[in-house]
Design a protein that fits this description.
The chain is an alpha+beta fold. Helix content is 52%, strand content 12%. It folds into 3 domains: 85 residues; 242 residues, no CATH class; 87 residues, no CATH class. The strands form 4 sheets. It has a 5-stranded antiparallel beta sheet, sandwiched between helices. The chain has a 3-stranded antiparallel beta sheet with strand order 10-11-12. Helix 7 crosses helix 15.
Length: 444
């Protein structure tokens, strides 16, 4: 091998392979090149990873923090609401929500509650008893609704003035001096909500809604023919549906009972027992309180079914900004001074508008229902029947078809299928609450 180094130039020209071999011998061994390439590659990869990982970490960390903050905000909001409004007592655990609904109170003895106090006003531990039912105000039942509808078919209005709430609502006076409240809305679904909520109350035999009927703004009809100028001033459009409700006198504001305020927020037989032990209330006051609470039990079910936004949910929602709002009069709820009847006013958000906003407000709708365990027996029986038959949509639509003229049906749609579906789901939910209470609080 050393002889190649002594070749002369001419020899090299004759032996070019020798030159190649000589040059080859002068180059570094191949393994040294591989090591260099590997080192450069490893450095580049390491540098890249060293830069990218922190960037990805901080980016992901920010995203995770943002997600966590948003999640915590929603969870905390829900927790705050639950903490405020589900701060209850008396040893009942809601297994479906894993929160303590009724922590035990030592001075309450179940056996004693069953034998005295509560049994005077309750039947089987969960239903209002005969003593309370007998004192409930008569309210507005089927016959009064029929009389009102028949009256409007012949009525002649002579005056239209501001009143009966906000916006374009008006107080109407008829020829014989009777009065009514007219609900006019640009959105047809609010008229539907008012009307079908009224129909639902009749199906449930809840007598706390004033008689109502649908009419059409028609300047050629006897009802409206005297009011051209007033209707123009009210900016009503012709051929629009309106709801005409009987005007109710002697109305006072109605407050939320203490048992439904944040420090309590539940009603079961142990609450009734405790109320009977209040030394400041005589038997007459106790009975009046029970009669009002019996109407509230219907109100809670009715507003849950319709997803009414304009009554108690209004107070619950605004509690986060105004802690005193629960002491203020309930929104769209009044009490007749001459009969103690609670009147459920302005139900236009029910069944349509309220259903569209369930994602935002369902927690407020559920608060009272989840903790209501005393019911009117008649209401519970109807809920169970509706649950079994699943025919609430048919019942509501039949009422609409039978009670309204072709002219009304041309401009006002019936209840949509989507609303019927949601209403059936909410009937199921009320049914579950009733059966749950039966299993927990029933004496039998």
């Amino acid at each position: 091998m050393g002889a190649y180094a002594n070749f002369s130039d001419d020899k090299l020209e004759k032996f070019p392979s020798a030159v190649w071999e000589r040059d080859f011998k002068q180059k570094p061994p191949p393994y040294k090149n591989l090591c260099l390439v590997s080192a450069v590659f490893a450095f580049s990869v390491g540098l890249t990873i060293g830069i990218l990982i922190p960037l990805m970490y901080f980016n992901d960390n920010d995203s995770a923090k943002n997600f966590t903050r948003e999640t915590d905000r929603v969870v905390n909001a829900s927790s705050v609401i639950r903490t405020i409004f589900l701060n209850n007592s008396y040893g009942y655990t809601n297994t479906t929500k894993s929160v303590l609904i009724y922590p035990t109170v030592s001075f309450v003895e179940t056996a004693q509650a069953n034998k005295t106090g509560a049994s005077e006003y309750l039947e089987d531990g969960i239903y209002w008893g005969p003593k309370v039912e007998a004192q409930l105000p008569e309210g507005y039942k089927d016959q009064k609704h029929t009389v009102w509808s028949d009256y409007l078919n012949k009525a002649v209005a002579i005056r239209l003035e501001n009143g009966c709430g906000r916006m374009q609502n008006r107080l109407v006076t008829f020829q014989d001096g009777l009065k009514g409240c007219v609900r006019y809305r640009q959105n047809t679904d609010q008229i539907q909500g008012e009307l079908f909520s009224f129909y639902l109350a009749q199906i449930l035999k809840i007598p706390n809604l004033a008689p109502s009927a649908v009419s059409i703004v028609d300047l050629n009809s006897p009802l409206w023919s005297n009011l051209h100028n007033e209707i123009a001033a009210a900016q009503w459009n012709s051929n629009r549906p309106i709801v005409l409700t009987q005007f109710i006198t002697n109305l006072n504001s109605a407050n939320i009972p203490a048992v439904f305020k944040p420090l309590e927020r539940h009603l079961n037989k142990y609450d009734i027992y405790n109320m009977t032990k209040n030394p400041l209330l005589d038997k007459g006051d106790q009975l009046r309180n029970m009669v009002e609470l019996a109407q509230w039990s219907d109100l809670i079910i009715f507003d849950y079914l319709t997803a009414n936004l304009d009554r108690i949910v209004n107070n619950l929602y605004n509690y986060q900004w105004n802690v005193n709002i629960m002491d203020a009069p309930a929104h769209n709820l009044a009490k007749k001074s001459d009969s103690e009847l609670l009147v459920f006013l302005d139900n236009e958000s029910g069944l349509l508008h309220g259903y569209r906003l369930l994602k935002k407000y369902e927690i407020y709708h559920s608060i009272l229902l989840d903790n209501l365990c005393v019911f009117r027996k008649q209401t519970a029986r109807i809920i169970k029947k509706l649950k079994t038959k699943g025919n609430i949509g048919t019942l509501l639509r039949d009422m609409f078809e039978k009670r309204n003229s072709a002219v009304v049906k041309d401009v006002l749609p019936t209840l949509p299928d989507k609303s019927v579906k949601i209403l059936n789901e909410r009937i199921d939910r009320v049914y579950e609450q009733i059966t749950k209470c039966e299993s927990i609080f029933s004496n039998t």
